[in-house]
Amino acid sequence: MKQTVPSLSASCLFISLLLAITLSCISPAQSIGQDVLNDICSKSKDSSFCLKSLNSDPQTATTDLLGLAGISIKLAKTTVDATYNFVKSQVGLVTDPTLKKQYTQCVESYDDANDKVDYANERLKAGDYGGVGVATSACLDDVSDCEKPPPVAVNVAAASTISLSEQNKESYELCQIALIISNRLSGKN
């Protein structure tokens, strides 16, 4: 009786077919949908600001949750940097010692917040989503230390104080969005 041995080309074809089927079942990271974005932003203090901020980055439409975490950290970094620079510029404009002390404290708080956002980015790259949450939560604490803008002094324009209040709110919101996304990555919500 003659036994049939499959040819090498038939075996290669079978393995290739099996590999193609397996790879088609493994989908690449799915982009988040609007419903996920809405859910994330519903957990923030200002959902419309959250949606507007995240949608300001064109990559949001095609990214996955991990990419969205990176976008939120990048947005937080940009705003925290801008607020730090703004507050630092105000320290030199005030002569009232109490006011100068308050602005100096804000500079220190935002310097710390900058470090926390940088650390959150490092943790994200390392896949440590819990670490991202800890860092972004600490960023919220640092920003909150400067939550109430110093009173307006005679030599500081009211617009500067209003601007600090707005920038501080934006920094807080963006750190909070990064925290919400990191919690979702960690499976906490």
UniProtKB/TrEMBL annotation:
It comes from the Eukaryota. Residues 32-181 form the Pectinesterase inhibitor domain. Belongs to the PMEI family. One of its GO terms (molecular function) is pectinesterase inhibitor activity. Keywords: Disulfide bond, Signal. This is Pectinesterase inhibitor domain-containing protein. Residues 1-31 form the signal peptide. The keyword Signal applies. It comes from Quercus lobata (Valley oak). It holds the Pfam family PMEI. Gene3D superfamilies: Invertase/pectin methylesterase inhibitor family protein (1.20.140.40).
